[in-house]
Amino acid sequence: MSLLDRLKPQPKWKHPDPQIRAAAIPELDDADELRAIVREDADPGVRRAAVRRLGDAAVLAEVARGDADEKVRAEAAASLVEIATSGEPAAAEQATAGVDDQKHLASIAKSSPHDSARRAAVGRLSEPRALGAVARQAEHPETAMQALDTLADVDELVNVAINSEHKDVALAALEKASAADPGARGTFETIATRTKHKAVARRAGALVQAIDEAEAARAAAAEALRQRQIAAAEAFRQRQIAACEAAEAAGRHADWRAGDASLADADAAWRALGADPDPALADRFAGAVEAARAAIDARRAESLEADRKAEAFGREREARTALVAAVDAIDPAAEGALDELAALRQAWLALPAAVALPTDEAAGLSGGFDRAAAALEERRRRWEAAQAARDRFEALSLEAESLAATEDVPALARRWPALAVEWQKLEAEAGGRVDEAAAARVAAARDRVAARQTDLERQAEQGRKDNLTRLVQLCQHLEQRATAEDLKLREVDRGLKNIRAALESPPPLPSSKDTDAVVERLKALQAALAPRARELRELDDWKRFANASAQEELIAQATALKDEPDLEKAARTLRDLHTKWREVAEAPRDQAEALWHRFKTESDEVRARCSEFFAKQADERNANLQLKEALCERAEALAASTDWIRTAEELKRLQAEWKTIGPVSRKHAKAVWKRFRAACDQFFTRRHDDLVERKQLWAANLERKQALCAQADALAESTEWEAAAAEIRRLQAEWKTVGPVRKNKSEAIWQRFRGACDHFFERYKNRHQIELGTKLTEREALVAGIEALAAADAAAGPPGDLGEQAANSWVQWTRLPALPREVLDPLARRYQDAVARLVETFPAAFAGTTLDPEANRRKMEALCARVESATGAEPDVAIDAASPTAILAARLREALAANTIGGRPSTRQTDDSKWRAAVEDVKDAQNAWRRLGPVPGSDGHALAERFQKACNRFFDQHRRRQTAQGPLGTAPVRPRR
Question: Which of 506, 610, 871, 873 could share a disulfide with 571, CB 3.0–4.6 Å?
């Protein structure tokens, strides 16, 4: 740009100040400049001002989709909607193609005057709520039907069936809803009671009736099938029980051969039952077969291996007693109780038979296990029965609540007695063990049903009382009016008609005595009013005769008006004569038509003379009509506006102006008023619908934000830090996508959400301290527990379950997450010292546990030998104390092992793979060493030093090899002492 170009004055819309540019936009009429500003100006406010001035649908669509500022995009979308609803057909169709927002597309579909724009808008709708709004509120039935064809959401279909202005659309919506959910009886009932169209209500009622009939048929068939299934299941169950009892009896035969034959018969009987046995009975049969087989095998083994039983007597008694105790300790409510019993039974069967055991003791041990197993199975059966009863109690209580809340009185009357009988039967079978919550729900439902029955009876009684009151009031009113001076003939006729209706079909009354009394009073009134009716009818005839004279006088006055020179006075007087004529309009029936014809003829002659007056009046009314039509045009121009506040004020001003304009001719008055009112109603209806839609949107946004608050509240105390932090960030991002809510609730819901997020991130910032505290607390609890056990008096002997307690504590200690060394080491020393004191004080209590010192000593020796074999060294070679020759030989062996790892290498790759396997093997040994319990005394210290030396030796060899050939492993891990 040259200096002269720079010195030239620039237009205001190119000024550096955004505010000046924005203020200049309303004065700019150059469409190309406006397009350039919309696309290129850096300030969003300037771009918004340019969008409001621009009428190019293509550019507006580009801005609505791609502008960086949300408000600019919204302004462009609003302009596109205005073009689509008020522009030319081609522009409207182009503008519709540029709109993406579902709400805007729905507005176009509902109110655009162009069919192509409406079709295009409906074709791009996908949200059920928007499609439903178009199907309900579209001015054109074909547009509503097009939206309905796309709509699949059942709730929206129901809403359309209820609220649509078009009967065909409502019927089609009902059919689609019934096809999507044919069994939605409550939905069809709602449509039948709330729809605007009788045809839709009739169709919905027919669907409800069809559902009720189908449900009744299904219920009857299901009940018959259930009874047959119950009978068949009971017979099948009895056969299973018989097979189980036969198998159990087979195990009790003293002669193992007879028991084996009986067991074979029982097994054949069970197999004959086929598939799908009762799980509990199947487990019982399997257990009985296994127990019987074990007993039979035991007895057979007793006769064949008596000499070996004598040697195994001590170990077998101890093992079998432990198995019986283990069976007794099984919790029958545990998920794997029967699997654990089967495992123990397998362990029992796997024990060797002691042929030398005394018969009574062998039988006692075997019977003890069988009794323990049978007792466990019985406890399990009782627990399952109680669980099934509890489930049935729960199901009945839920059904009772549903019946208590139903509006279907016949269904309540049919089902409630059977439910009550079934509940009483279950209570009797449960022996008082009824779930309190379920019992409370049934009691509450029973009270509600009783209250409803009482209410129905009370309502019926009240209806009878109301009928009696109404008839008594009718009698009292007619008795009072029968003698009144101002009684009219029309009133008498109406009273006699009501009496005849009550006598022909009397409504139900509280008692027959009341019915007789009311009927008697009505007949008496009928007899009293009949003469009054005749009397009043005669008086009416006399009145008509008197009116004939008055009409003759009015005709004479109308005749005199023909000579009146003042036409305005004549017209006014003629109007008065017509008013007086209406007061005496009832003349004798044979003269009325002739008198009216004479009066009308004279009036027409007077009116003909007043033509000039009436012409002037017509001109005034035509002028008034033009003024009112101008107001109609202005109101119609404002009917489609979305500037709600300003347009509402303008329409109210037009309505006030309408009242100041005089009357128009009678033939135009109704039409012009209807036109003006329709334009006003269109705007105010749209304004109301917009407000309702915004309230619905605010409510939906509030519900979404409340859901986000609930999720944030649930995550506020989470300790899964990274997952929770990512989820809360996702919730924060989703929060930004949710639209506004009501102003009086916006701040509260925001503070709730922000508080939950801030609380979590404050904890997240201190998460390491929190996790450390939690881990430290867990370890301190274990240390305190084991130290409490170690402080027990040695003279008093160990507690009964000391070994189990200490072993469980040790397993928990090894599984807890790691802590910093400066925190963990003091606790670890305290814990290991306490465990070592316990093992050293009560070694017998830990026999057979993970802390068994003898077993751990053997495992330590095996691990030492395992690592030493990896190094290629002989166990327990004290190199430091050996002679120079021994030291040289040891170093040569180490060098040889470092080069070959016990074998002659073929390639570098083979050597590397062997070294990797060796490193992994030593690491596994180190991990296994950490899990071992302590070995008290000097043996434990010696084994720890031996293991540490072996590990150090291996990793020294490994490091030397790494130096020569590259890295492979890691540094050695010092063993725990």
Answer: 610
